[in-house]
Amino acid sequence: MSESPFKQIGTPQKGDIVAICDHASNHVPADIDLGIGPELLEKHIAYDIGTEGVVDRLAVRHHVPVHHALVSRLVIDLHREEDSPGLIPETSDGHLIPGNLGADREGRIARFYKPYHEAFARWIAPAEPRLLLSIHSFTPDLESKAEDRPWEVGLLYNEDDRAARHAIRMFAQQGCVVGDNEPYSGKLLNATMNRHAEAHGIPYLAIEIRNDLIAHETGQSRWAAMIHDIAGRVALALD
Description:
Blueprint: E1 6-9, E2 17-21, H1 51-62, E3 66-69, E4 91-92, E5 95-96, H2 105-124, E6 131-138, E7 153-156, H3 162-173, E8 178-180, H4 191-196, E9 204-210, H5 217-238
Parallel strand pairs: 2-3, 2-6, 6-9, 7-8
Antiparallel strand pairs: 1-3, 4-5, 7-9
Helix pairs in contact: 1-5, 3-5
InterPro entries: N-FG_amidohydro, UCP029730
Keywords: Hydrolase
Protein name: N-formylglutamate amidohydrolase
């Protein structure tokens, strides 16, 4: 019951670029029974495949301080508003999550959601970051519907597109197939950056990487290096 819902690597310094990764883990605490088979925990519905490897490399190799989740989004989706119906998903990509039917919503918010977001806010406040990175991955194929997802990387934003506009151009210059608010819109799904970036006037990059590109160490290293390079150049462009 005392395990932390997050891990932090590094310490943000004044004006740093800082990263957060809401869906890094597929861990389910031992006292929570989701009522699903273990094979579902290896799917995209449980976590953003490959992102933990990317953010770990951002932190260790490129010295970007990272705050990332240590709990599966099937337990609680940390990248939702607190009052969102999808905060504790009862279904995901066509799969029923029976253990979430009638779950103790307030208990999970108090145990996982609030500590995760409050700790991140406290961690970055003294540093006044120049840019926040939100790292996610998306699956090229949904089980519940046929959908063409040709992008290698997408940049999401809500109202503040300052950083995203630069990054979209820079990823394209690297030869990437880049999506503008794809494969879904940040107008609808931008909770963490709305809370920690837009609400405080901090520019941000909400980056979605196609998960087959970062399912292995080589891809994780490549994308961490590219994100570090582009984030640095975006920060300079914004100065």
